[in-house]
Amino acid sequence: MSIIFDDHKQFEYSIPVIVIGAGGCGLCAALAVKENNTDVLVIERDPTPLGTTAMSTGLIPGANTRLQREAGIADSPETFANDIMKKTKGETDPNIAICLARESSKTVEWLIDEYQIPLSLVDSFLYPGHSLMRMHGTPNRTGSELMGALCRAAEKSEIDILTNALVTDLYSDSTKRILGVRVLRSDGEIEEVGCDALILACCGFAGNPEMIEEYMPQIKDAEFFGHPGNKGDAIIWGKSLGAGLADISAYQGHGGLAAGRGVPILWPMIMEGAFQVNKNGRRFSDESKGYSEQAVEVVSQPDKIAWNIFDERLHSLMMEFEDYHNAIEAKAIVNAETITELSQLTNIDESALREVIKEVEEMVEGKREDDFGRDFTGKPKLSSPYYAVKVTGALFHTQGGLVVNEDARVLDKQGNTLPNIFAGGGSARGISGPSDWGYMAGNGLLTATTFGRLAGTAAAKLIEKFN
Ligand SMILES: Cc1cc2nc3c(=O)[nH]c(=O)nc-3n(C[C@H](O)[C@H](O)[C@H](O)COP(=O)(O)OP(=O)(O)OC[C@H]3O[C@@H](n4cnc5c(N)ncnc54)[C@H](O)[C@@H]3O)c2cc1C
Hints:
Elements: E1 2-5, E2 14-20, H1 24-35, E3 40-43, H2 51-55, E4 60-61, H3 66-70, H4 77-87, H5 94-115, E5 120-121, E6 135-137, H6 143-156, E7 160-162, E8 165-172, E9 178-185, E10 190-200, H7 209-215, E11 223-224, H8 233-240, E12 245-246, E13 251-258, E14 263-264, H9 268-271, E15 275-277, H10 291-299, E16 305-311, H11 312-318, H12 322-329, E17 333-336, H13 339-346, H14 350-364, E18 386-398, E19 401-402, E20 409-411, E21 417-423, H15 443-466
Parallel strand pairs: 1-8, 2-3, 2-10, 3-7, 10-21, 11-18
Antiparallel strand pairs: 4-6, 5-6, 8-9, 9-10, 12-19, 13-14, 13-18, 15-16, 16-18, 17-18, 20-21
Helix pairs in contact: 1-6, 1-15, 4-5, 5-15
The chain binds flavin-adenine dinucleotide (FAD).
């Protein structure tokens, strides 16, 4: 992965805009380029456009969407930006936070109205950090459904996606204007394509163990549950071009990947009253702070595992999610009529299990303070039949990256725009602060879809200026 500087480089074939990566960011970017009457080519290393986006739950936050208004939820970009700043303890760029919060509802409505992406409001629970319900998802709440719908939209818009095509190098002139790309096809052929503007939508570096070791060693021993094709190419190229990098040690972890099953157990069950114990039946943290920071907590327990303890009410809540159905199918979920039976199924000492369930009941009743600071009041006590699932901590994707402005244009270290290069999604610096605790649900797809749309629009406008 390198930059080839050549002021005289000529290409046999050129297209106005090249997008590298056909995940959520790349496809939103391409749709936005095309609707601005500009030709675009998306180049994707895999045989099918999937990316991290297809592995995700596909939930996109939007503040003050018409779906929220119809549900009687009074949200605003300012409220959303406040939530982002609070979750990151003020350690993210406030201008980008308010920009994305403002643009978020436009993206959700743009996807529904222009491209028939079937999004509805998730109104059954609140994700950690969000003060209002603002997540929007496809009917089964899956990223594969979202990617299917985006691919259909791209096809309808006659967007070309070159698959089995790994971009290995970028051509640049001495002013750092990108002239084109070098592509390795799966049959070993090399192709070169010229462009007037380039959009980096090839995510972060979660699939690059050396970069993980360098930038976020605390999570290197956790299971990796992201897209293995994301090797940090955008960041490597950006560095060579003198681009600014920020929050490079930020990531989204997850403290609830079903152990040995590779299925995420989503956080609604925790937020609505489930709790985690280690194999000795002891709680070890405030699980409600967020699922990202919970990954290192779980990984530091004996055998790097925890058990989520819940009941029939929470089991029913989780049936909204396809991932949970997959967990049932994978036989990850156990259920028991009594605590004795639950102890046998989980191999957790019965008296420890009885004690922790009693402690949580006392916290629900407000008779006891949690040692870890979690507030259980307002949630019902767990009741028989009980359920449990063994989980481990995982790394999902990285959140730091190239510094961009409100048009998703890549900036150099001094804050000046590079001539014709844009980035979004996992390739750009997100809004999750510098570590694991700033990630709020939806930050991944917010930056993918909204920066994608903004990058596509701005790239098309930039080219219009050249011509
Ligand atoms: C289990 C899970 C659940 C999640 N749930 C949510 C959620 O509900 N809401 C949310 O907001 N976020 C969620 N996320 C995060 C979210 O999925 C990502 O932040 C988002 O999908 C990133 O989108 P992207 O387009 O930047 O990257 P990707 O979707 O990963 O796409 C990047 C593409 O670039 C390709 N590529 C890489 N390098 C090259 C190259 N050199 N040449 C050509 N192609 C290349 C890759 O093959 C890939 O297809 C979740 C993540 C995981 C793992």
